[in-house]
Amino acid sequence: MANVWPVKESKDDRPQTAVKSANIRRMAWRGVASLFVGLAWVVFIVLFALLWAPSLSLFQNIVILIASLVAAFVLVGIMWMAYGMQHGWEP
User: Fold this and answer.
1) Are 72 and 37 in contact (CB under 8 A)?
2) Per residue in 60-77, pLDDT tens?
3) Structural domain span for residue 39
4) Rounded to an integer, what distance in angstroms lies between the CA atom of residue 45 and that of residue 63?
5) 67 in a structural domain
6) Pairwise CA distance, residues 25 & 36, whole Å
7) CA angle 59, 47, 67 (to 5 degrees)
8) Structure confidence at residue 91 (pLDDT)
9) Half-sphere exposure of 80 (CA within 13 A, CB side)
10) Is the pTM of this model over 0.85?
């Protein structure tokens, strides 16, 4: 029997190495930005603990910790979600 599976034919004339290189660059800046957000969060928590935390209650400190962590995750998640929506499940 003949193979009847649909075959995706590419009409892209660009070489595949250029496409993969562009994808790696798009991932690279997101990786660097993710590290920067993580480091900025740690710096914020340290400064908060040293300067503002003593004047607040334990509950308020926990809320600020959780809210800042959620904000950092949302920021990084939006960056990577945009990449994932653009590229999907590429082989």
Assistant:
1) yes
2) 999 999 999 999 999 999
3) 27-87
4) 12
5) yes
6) 17
7) 40
8) 61
9) 12
10) no
Q: What is the mean pLDDT of the segment spanning 38-56? A: 96
Question: Please, are residues 2 and 36 in contact by the beta-carbon 8 Å criterion?
Answer: no
Question: How many domains, in total, are found in the chain?
Answer: 1
Tokens (6 digits) for 10: 């590419």
Q: What is the pLDDT of residues 11-41, one digit of tens each?
A: 555 555 666 677 677 788 999 999 999 999 9
Does residue 5 sit within a domain?
no
CA distances from 64 to 3, 8, 67, 91 (A): 59, 50, 5, 41
For the record, the structure tokens of 17 come out as 């190495």
* Three-state SS annotation for 2-57: CCCCCCCCCCCCCCHHHHHHHHHHHHHHHHHHHHHHHHHHHHHHHHHHHHCHHHCC
